[in-house]
Design goal:
Strand content: 5-15%
Number of domains: 1
Bound molecules: adenosine-5'-diphosphate, zinc ion
Number of helices: 8
Radius of gyration: 16 Å
Shape: globular
Number of strands: 7
Distance between the termini: 15 Å
Length: 207
């Protein structure tokens, strides 16, 4: 099965991807994670991408798609995958469609107020990618899964979040409309993670 997760920044795509990949036995491939790993490893692509990401702009599609294609060719992706963060505009839809067919697009809807509250409190484990929020209380320094120290993403500040949200409305909502016309969209209307999971699993007929 090949799935796309779509939603504004902070909608909970990363959170939903965890039970989905466990249930379906396919990897989640996040272009944001691929880019952040490239930056951490100081690769050529990473160096190119960093300034775009830090100001909340899209990284040039060629850079992202080359990285993505390499990742999609790895053996664990041969039975399918969950794409998180790609495609983000109609140009990327075209490229993806020339490369492969997608079964479903899961669209998680959420408002800007919830997004700001969430992303300002978001902490990410650089090692295992676990996502924690300071609003949950408890240890806000060490990863609950692997013990590494959380980081705050450099693009999780109010100015950049607002920019990313506006970019989502302008560039990514047309992507959702495109897949709606193809009848592939599963719409999720909740911001509560258990409910998001339930709606997605029900729509996919898995449990
Ligand atoms: P979020 O969903 O919280 O915005 P992501 O991790 O998906 O975060 O993306 C972070 C940043 O990485 C984006 O703001 C953008 O700069 C870059 N990025 C990720 N995916 C893409 C993509 N498909 N095309 C262009 N830039 C991307
Ligand atoms: Zn961890």
């Amino acid at each position: 099965m090949k799935l796309i997760l779509i939603g504004a920044p902070g909608a909970g795509k990363g959170t939903l991807s965890v039970p989905l990949k466990e249930k379906l036995g396919i990897p989640t491939i996040s272009t944001g994670d691929l880019l952040r790993d490239a930056i951490a490893n100081q690769t050529e692509e990473g160096i190119q991408a960093k300034s775009f990401m830090d100001r909340g702009a899209l990284v040039p599609t060629e850079v992202v798609f080359e990285m993505l294609k390499k990742r999609l060719q790895e053996p664990d992706a041969k039975n399918g995958y969950i794409l998180d963060g790609f495609p983000r505009n109609l140009e990327q839809v075209k490229l993806l469609e020339s490369y492969t067919d997608i079964d479903y697009v899961i669209d998680i809807e959420i408002g800007l107020d919830v997004i700001l509250e969430r992303l300002l409190g978001r902490r990410v484990c650089p090692k295992c990618k676990y996502i924690y929020n300071t609003s949950w209380g408890g240890d806000s320094v060490h990863c609950a899964k692997c013990g590494a120290e959380y980081i705050t993403r450099s693009d999780d500040n109010e100015e950049t979040i607002t920019k990313r949200y506006n970019l989502f409305v302008e560039e990514t909502e047309p992507v959702i409309d495109h897949y709606k016309k193809l009848g592939k969209v599963i719409e999720i209307k909740s911001s509560e993670s258990e409910e998001v999971k339930k709606q997605a699993f029900d729509a996919l007929g898995i449990n």
